[in-house]
């Protein structure tokens, strides 16, 4: 028997369930359970999704810390690419017929845009990289939603499992089941949006429900990213009087209200600056170019910063190709930022400039949130996704006794006290899927409770003394207890019981 190194106690419980059931079910279900076991021990699968050209690949590069996904102007991501940890850097193209072949990186270390085969034959690309971040996170870049190229949308759905979950699993398997399960069903989602969230972006979010192992994306496993914050016109945003970031934050809060409870948060980001500063693209000679620009006379500098065209074409002592490169790396806002830093400290080093640009990108806030929402709860998220896969295996059983056995085992697991976190995640998922509705203040309370592992954050009492938190946890536990029994619908009551228990457990630990 293979040993599976799972994330933590909840995944371990789901893994045990699979191990125990495997010998007691037919061949087909046993294979399915084996796949679930493999998935439980793999790193958290994070898909980056969103409309075309919203900056998904740029964000992927920033997360990995290497400019490996093509983002050049006019370059669309056409196939799903999975970036996972490997001991040597290598690329593998997986074809729909299950065959694979390896592919060299470009001279610059990126994935070539030409895969050397007709795209219709490609399932996806596996990129194995030595970057340490990938040890506990697999990052999946996807073609843009709403892309004019219908084929790439279909391919994304096929790879992420959308089509299969929609009930087409009986068709001819295009991938062998093992590799299919290995790529199907991301467990967490970064949803990249830009200034205008349109109604169909919400549709896009639900279209990706099935990408997350058949469970809807929600506050448990989805974060919104308001990218290209540098292109926001502060004047166009209500509450944006205080400058770019004030405007970006106001806009993000607004979009969060529209998208909730589908996502945990919407955080503003300048993906381009994040990529440039994280992926080692910003060199000493770029810093040198910036210093030379800073030294230009005030009126030349002001004119050049009006537009991208003026910036590259205006006659000045700084070579035009060096300027064009800066524009590509930083865009006008980033250049302005850098020049201000140089004004403030004319001796600033290239390294310092780079970290100032990183600071200006908003990436560190996003990473903190990502750690809290995803990595901090990877055990629960993986376990919940694993259990959903077990449910899918059960669904596809033809033998009713076998199905019954799987269902009974799952129910049994959910009633164990240590499965409380799973039940809380399930409750949040019910809320985001609209299976249960709650008045908005209660909804906010549940989202807050499930949004973090930190007690003071969960209670909405940052910095409060322990005694007050203890008292409050008990009070809310009592309240939800009575809400569960009085006047709630059955679905509400199910959620209320879980919330009651969550408060009770916190109270017990605080005490
Ligand atoms: N100004 C600015 N440009 C950005 C930002 N993020 C990405 N871009 C640019 O937007 C363009 C598209 O970025 P990509 O990362 O390729 O977008 P994508 O979503 O992967 O695009 P598809 O794969 O075609 O759907 C590139 O030229 C990026 O340099 C940002 O924060 N600010
Ligand atoms: Mg892309």
TrEMBL record:
Annotated SUPFAM superfamilies: P-loop containing nucleoside triphosphate hydrolases
UniProt keyword Membrane, yes or no: yes
One GO cellular component, as annotated: membrane
Location of the Dynamin N-terminal domain: 46-193
Major site of localization recorded for this protein: membrane
UniProt subcellular location: Membrane
GO MF assignments: GTP binding; GTPase activity
InterPro entries named among the record's database cross-references: Dynamin_N (IPR045063), Mitofusin_fam (IPR027094), P-loop_NTPase (IPR027417)
Keyword GTP-binding: yes
Top-rank taxon: Bacteria
Signal peptide start and end residues: none
Keyword annotations from UniProtKB, A to Z: GTP-binding, Hydrolase, Membrane, Nucleotide-binding
PANTHER family assigned to the protein according to its UniProt record, in alphabetical order: SARCALUMENIN (PTHR10465:SF0), TRANSMEMBRANE GTPASE FZO1 (PTHR10465)
Annotated protein name in UniProt: Dynamin N-terminal domain-containing protein
Organism: Actinopolyspora biskrensis
Species lineage: Bacteria, Bacillati, Actinomycetota, Actinomycetes, Actinopolysporales
């Amino acid at each position: 028997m293979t040993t599976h190194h799972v994330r933590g106690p909840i995944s371990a419980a789901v893994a045990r369930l699979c191990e125990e059931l495997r010998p007691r079910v037919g061949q087909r279900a046993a294979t399915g359970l084996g796949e679930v076991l493999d998935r439980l021990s793999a790193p958290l699968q994070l898909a980056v999704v969103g409309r075309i050209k919203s900056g998904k690949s740029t964000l992927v590069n920033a997360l990995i810390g290497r400019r490996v996904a093509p983002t050049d102007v006019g370059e669309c991501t056409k196939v799903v690419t999975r970036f996972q940890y490997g001991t040597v850097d290598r690329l593998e193209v997986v074809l729909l017929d299950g065959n694979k072949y390896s592919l060299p990186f470009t001279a610059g270390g990126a994935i070539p845009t030409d895969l050397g085969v007709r795209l219709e034959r490609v399932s996806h690309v596996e990129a194995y990289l030595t970057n340490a971040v990938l040890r506990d996170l697999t990052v999946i870049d996807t073609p843009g939603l709403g892309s004019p190229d219908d084929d790439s949308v279909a391919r994304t759905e096929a790879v992420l499992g959308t089509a299969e979950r929609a009930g087409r699993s009986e068709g001819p398997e295009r991938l062998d089941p093992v590799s299919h399960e290995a790529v199907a069903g991301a467990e967490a989602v970064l949803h990249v949006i830009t200034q205008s969230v349109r109604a169909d972006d919400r549709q896009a979010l639900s279209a990706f429900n099935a990408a997350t192992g058949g469970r809807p994306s929600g506050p448990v496993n989805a974060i919104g990213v308001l990218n290209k914050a540098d292109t926001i016109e502060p004047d166009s945003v209500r509450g944006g009087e205080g400058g770019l970031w004030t405007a970006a934050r106001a806009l993000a809060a607004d979009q969060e209200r529209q998208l909730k409870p589908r996502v945990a948060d919407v955080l503003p980001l300048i993906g381009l600056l994040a990529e440039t500063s994280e992926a080692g693209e910003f060199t000493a000679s770029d810093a040198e170019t910036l210093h030379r620009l800073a030294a230009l006379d005030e009126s030349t500098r002001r004119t050049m910063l009006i537009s991208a065209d003026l910036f590259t074409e205006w006659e000045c002592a700084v070579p035009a190709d060096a300027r064009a490169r800066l524009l590509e790396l930083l865009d006008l806002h980033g250049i302005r930022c850098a020049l201000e830093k140089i004004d403030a400290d004319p001796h600033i080093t290239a390294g310092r400039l780079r970290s100032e640009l990183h600071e200006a990108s908003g990436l560190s806030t996003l990473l903190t949130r990502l750690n809290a929402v995803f990595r901090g709860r990877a055990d629960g998220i993986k376990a919940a996704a694993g259990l959903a896969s077990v449910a899918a295996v059960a669904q596809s059983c033809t033998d009713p006794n076998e199905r019954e056995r799987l269902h009974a085992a799952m129910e049994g697991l959910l009633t164990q006290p240590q499965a409380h976190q799973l039940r809380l995640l399930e409750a949040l998922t019910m809320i985001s899927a609209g299976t249960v509705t709650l008045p908005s203040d209660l909804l906010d309370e549940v989202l807050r409770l499930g949004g973090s592992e930190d007690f003071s954050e969960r209670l909405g009492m940052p910095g409060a003394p322990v005694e007050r938190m203890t008292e409050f946890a008990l009070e809310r536990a009592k309240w939800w207890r009575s809400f569960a029994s009085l006047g709630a619908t059955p679905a509400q009551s199910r959620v209320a019981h879980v919330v009651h228990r969550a408060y009770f457990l916190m109270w017990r630990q605080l005490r």
